[in-house]
User: What shape does this take?
Amino acid sequence: MSRRARICLAAAVLAPLVSVTACGVTRDEAPQCGAVERVAIIAQSVPSASYVPCLLRLPAGWTSSRFQVRSGRTSYALTSDRAPGHPVVVELRDRCRPAGTTPIAARTPGGRTALRVREIDPRYAGTMFDVFPGGCVTYRFDFARGSHIALMAELQSVVGFVTRIELRRLLQDRLGVELEP
Assistant: This one.
């Protein structure tokens, strides 16, 4: 079975609450880490990724929208009421280019986290990268100065990760479903 067919099958079997169109899965909100069926759809979009991003919790004033799963990538937007009109775009791919970045504390065991600041004044804008075996999550942000420090801290507390190994075990235990690869 082709990779695209496996992703479509997984989307159809694992996510009855999500609409499937041309094998593109869309639903407004990105999945919480405990929603293993929906997190599995993200895992299938980038089968090489050793970690799968998901929402730990949304602090007061934050919303999730524009959740899209395509073969080779998953993306969604996170918006704070303190940064209206400037959502953070979160995207998982199999690789990225974190050149010209500054390392910060790693958010995944065995991974790297880095920051590329594009602008400091009048706005704090750039990209944060979580790089791990087989995958990369980018966070494109654009915040007003002043609230940017709190917003960056909250952003890092919003997105968490489930290991592919743990997700595979949870799917087998809860649903008797195998996650490939």
